[in-house]
Write a structure and sequence with these properties.
heterotrimer; A alpha/beta; B mainly alpha; C mainly alpha; B: mainly alpha; C: MetI-like fold; about 85% helix; binds adenosine-5'-diphosphate; binds magnesium ion
Chain lengths: ~250, ~240, ~220
């Protein structure tokens, strides 16, 4: 059932990736390839391993078996490989995880300065551009707890983009938001999608997923049950699990 | 309504048992007479407190970070150090360092050196626990954000984890510093010339223990009280500025 | 240097007796301290009036002055002021009781204040008599909540007994110093009592931490 485009050099490449928490198998032999520029949405029931998949792709969790390769860097790998992967891949968390004791400007400029050794002026200019792009340039001097959830999440996206990653991972970016703030965050992600960024998005917003993604994954029990092109996914895939899931959520 | 009756009883009781002759002959001028000596003692007390607080906090922070290490033997060493210094009395540590340790090392330390070593080591053990709790109070998401932005370990600690951790640590750090302010008096067992030792010496030559010990009790109280109220005010101010 | 085990064995009985003195003095001071602490706690909880002010003064004063100063004050001033003879053990007990009373008052108070206000209000609304509210609604959960701090205080009290060596109470630290001076085996005796103190105090530390963890799980924050 894999979409299985066996391209020469997929940007993200996973082979037989398994992850255990104690005896519990959170990821079960995951194999998937994602092309540069591809936008993939992941859906599935809670506890299905979606977050864990994103976290291993950002080397936040070590894997127990299998192999991951992102832009020619392999995991498991050295500490330097781990840091390189994190520089290449930006991550946006459900709970934003902004640095509470830093202003918005510092939040966005901090990582490029510290991790990419960018000069303060360049980092400031970059931050201003990114914050304008996500629509909160005027909040630059404030602190995270002065901002609404939607604004905080947009800052978090700008913060990840400031590292100039080649791919972005979103773990339920709108799930912690009040309903009226969901749209403003999705708009930013949509704009990013149009710019050609490679993205992996875990979401429950089916309409959004259908609209932006090239490809959909359905995960459950630590496995990728369905992997198909978006059109097909919503129309013709015949999988009782998935159909049940979709009927519940749509 | 029961309170005045009890109070009256206590006063009556005291009036009967108190040695009024002595009480009426109390002469606090001795405190004024030795004011410079006492003041010098107080200065040493404060210097020792500062020493315990600053060195202890520094060592405690280093040990707390070591206690988060992935290398298990390092964690065990930190734990053993902390438990040993926390679960034995400071007085025993001091006399052990001053009298027993030189027999093994062959290095004799002065009373002041032994006192500083003892109180600093105990302080670092206590500070380790507080810093560790502070570090563990930083939400997991902050760590993950730092990791996912590939921040170097030194930056992660000094700029992301420790600043919010320190904020939650202020009240326990204040309490701990005050408890080491009190602890300096224990150094009198080694005759380190801090306030308590000095008072003992004056009392031995003037035979006025009531005046002297009562006065330094008040001095310790006032200084300790100001330390606790003053620093909590600073914390309140910091919190207000942040809003 | 050789570790002189035979000296330790020879004076073992003295050390063990001193171990007993440490425990007995702690126990007596603790009991008197609990009584004083309850009185001062109630006084401070009353929130106004003379009893309130007196309790606050008592708590703040005896928590803030160094234990050594308190011990010396009781030892060298109290007998003069009352013109009676007081044994050094009794002085030690008096000083440690005052110290315990002040600390325990705050610990008790924190326990009582941690009982959710709603429970007390509900009991009032049901017109349950005051005494019953204290006995059935406030005290049982308050005891559970203050247990970690209480056990932790026990470790502080046990450590504080060593300070009584300064007024020649024959507890462990004093006996070890005397024996060390007599035999010149300082290292052996001082190390031995350090170990004894650790054996005595460490279990309470572990207990305090355990009960704190359990409490966190139960109350969920
Ligand atoms: N750090 C962890 N320790 C133990 N179990 C975990 C941990 N993280 C995730 N899990 C378990 O792994 C499973 C998959 O979790 P997750 O990837 O968060 O699912 P999803 O994001 O699809 O809801 C869940 O059953 C969860 O309980
Ligand atoms: Mg999840």
């Amino acid at each position: 059932m894999s979409a299985g485009q066996a391209a020469e050099n997929p940007f993200i490449h996973c082979r037989g990736v398994s992850k255990y928490f104690g005896n519990f198998k959170a990821l079960d032999e995951i194999s998937i390839d994602i092309e540069a520029g591809e936008i993939v949405c992941i859906v599935g029931p809670s506890g299905g391993g979606k977050s864990t998949l994103l976290r291993v792709l950002n080397a936040l969790e070590p894997i127990d078996s299998g192999e991951i390769q992102i832009d020619q860097i392999k995991l498991p790998g050295s500490r330097k490989d781990v840091e390189d992967i994190r520089r290449e891949v930006g991550m946006v968390f459900q709970q934003f995880n902004l640095f509470e004791h830093m202003s918005i400007r510092e939040n966005v400029t901090f990582a490029p300065r510290m991790s990419r050794k960018m000069s303060t002026e360049n980092a400031n200019e970059l931050a201003e551009n990114l914050l304008r792009r996500v629509g909160i340039a005027e909040q630059i001097a404030k602190y995270p707890n002065h901002l609404s959830g939607g604004q905080q999440q947009r800052v978090a996206i700008a913060r990840a983009l400031a590292m100039q990653p080649k791919a972005m991972l979103f773990d339920e970016p709108t799930s912690a938001l009040d309903p009226e703030m969901v749209a403003e965050v999705l708009d930013v992600i949509r704009e990013l999608a149009e710019s050609g960024m490679t993205m992996l998005i875990v979401t429950h917003e089916m309409g959004f997923a259908k609209e932006v993604s090239d490809r959909m994954l359905y995960m459950s029990g630590g496995r990728i049950i369905v992997d198909s092109e978006t059109q097909e996914f919503f129309q013709s895939v015949d999988n009782s699990d998935l159909n049940q899931f979709l009927s519940k959520i749509l | 309504m029961w309170f005045p009756i009890v109070l009256l009883g206590v006063i009556g009781f005291a009036a009967y048992f108190l040695n009024w002759n002595l009480l009426l002959s109390l002469d606090f001028s001795v405190v004024w007479e030795y004011r410079m000596v006492l003041l010098k003692g107080l200065m040493l007390t404060l210097a020792l407190t500062a020493c315990a607080a600053v060195l202890g906090l520094f060592a405690g922070t280093v040990l707390a970070i070591a206690s988060q290490s992935g290398f298990a033997p390092l964690r065990w060493i930190v734990t053993a150090f902390v438990e040993i210094w926390r679960n034995t009395p400071l007085l025993v540590q001091l006399i052990w360092i001053h009298f027993a340790l030189p027999l093994v090392t062959g290095i004799n330390t002065t009373a002041l050196e032994s006192g500083v070593i003892g109180i600093t080591l105990q302080a670092s053990a206590y500070f380790t626990e507080i810093v560790r709790a502070g570090i563990e109070s930083v939400p997991k998401g902050q760590w993950e954000a730092a990791y996912s932005l590939a921040l170097p370990a030194r930056i992660r600690w000094t700029r992301v984890i420790l600043p919010p951790a320190l904020r939650t640590m202020i009240p326990p750090l204040v309490n701990l510093t005050i408890s080491f302010f009190k602890g300096t008096a224990i150094l009198s067992i080694l005759h380190v010339s801090e306030l308590m030792t000095v008072t003992n010496r004056i009392s031995n030559v003037t035979f006025k223990p009531v005046e002297l010990f009562s006065s330094i009790a008040v001095i310790y109280f006032v200084v300790g009280y100001l330390m606790s109220k003053g620093t909590l005010r600073v914390e309140y101010y910091l919190q207000k500025r942040e809003r | 240097m050789r570790f002189e085990w035979d000296q330790l064995i020879r004076y073992g009985p003295e050390l063990l007796q001193a171990f007993g003195v440490t425990i007995v003095i702690s126990a007596i001071s603790l009991i008197i301290g609990i009584v004083l602490g309850m009185i001062a706690c109630l006084g401070k909880l009353s929130g106004q009036g003379g009893a309130y002010r007196l309790s606050i003064a008592f708590i703040d004063f005896f928590r803030t002055i160094p234990e050594v100063v308190l011990i010396f004050w009781v030892y060298s001033c109290l007998p003069l002021l009352l013109s009676v003879r007081i044994s050094s053990e009794a002085c030690g007990v008096i000083a440690l009781s005052l110290f315990s009373g002040a600390y325990l008052a705050e610990i008790f108070r924190a326990g009582v204040l941690a009982v959710p206000r709603g429970q007390v209000d509900a009991a009032h609304a049901l017109a349950i008599p005051r005494l019953h509210i204290w006995r059935k609604i406030i005290i049982p959960p308050a005891i559970r909540r203050m247990m970690p701090a209480f056990v932790n205080f026990l470790t502080e009290l046990l450590k504080a007994t060593s300070l009584l060596s300064a007024i020649a109470v024959a507890e462990m630290a004093y006996v070890a110093s005397i024996l060390g001076a007599k035999t010149l085996s300082y290292f052996e005796f001082l190390s031995a009592i350090a170990v004894l103190y650790f054996i005595l105090i460490f279990p309470f530390s572990v207990w305090a931490r355990r009960s704190e963890k359990k409490l966190l799980q139960r109350t969920g924050h």
